Amino acid sequence: MAVREILKMGDLRLLRVAQVVTAFDTDALHLLITDLLDTMRAADGAGLAAPQIGVDSQLVIFGTDSINPRYPQAPVVPRTVLINPVITPLSADQTEDWEGCLSVPGLRGKVPRFEQIRYTGFDQYGDPIDRTVAGFHARVVQHECDHLLGMLYPMRMCDFSQFGFTSVLFPELADAADD
Ligand code: NI
């Protein structure tokens, strides 16, 4: 168990296309997931992708079992380990909403995302995951899986007038975290 360093934007390791995971239910995989969970909890993150701690694997975690202080208005997304994900948009409709990222600390931006998606993949035991989701849940999955493509949310933004410091945009969240 360990809280790992989170890489910040500018680190080239965040721009790689991550490698497919080929071995499930291994000690190394379980250790990686424990480290990701510990690191996400310590930072009050809504999700975390393996590349954010420098691990070049198609693995993300997201969700919480309770309200997240960084996103107090957000609905609860079940805690999930998602490996080798594939996302299919279910319509062309996109909506814009605020996002933050532990690799882009102190900032928030409005990002367009598909409103409804299906996502498939595997959990840490190799059991399949197949969900159809919308809204915040869909947004979180698209954000985290983008990390596996070397994409950070500012690279998805269309309107940079909707980009700024969390402490200025959302002063009520100022003590939530420096993210
Ligand atoms: Ni992120």
Identify the notable features of this structure and list them briefly.
single chain; alpha+beta; globular; three-stranded antiparallel sheet; Peptide Deformylase; 27% strand; binds nickel (II) ion; 179 residues; five-stranded antiparallel sheet; 3 helices
Give an overview in words.
This protein has 179 residues and is α+β, with helices and mostly antiparallel strands. It has one domain (12-176): Peptide Deformylase (Alpha-Beta Complex), CATH 3.90.45. 18% of the residues lie in helices and 27% in strands. It is built from 3 helices and 8 strands. It has helices at 27-42, 135-147, 166-169; strands at residues 47-49, 59-62, 80-89, 94-99, 107-114, 116-122, 128-134, 163-165. It has a 5-stranded antiparallel sheet with strand order 1-2-3-6-7, with helices on both faces. Strands 4-5-8 form a 3-stranded antiparallel sheet. The radius of gyration is 15 Å and the shape is globular. The two termini are 23 Å apart. 30% of the residues are buried. Nickel (II) ion binds next to helix 2.
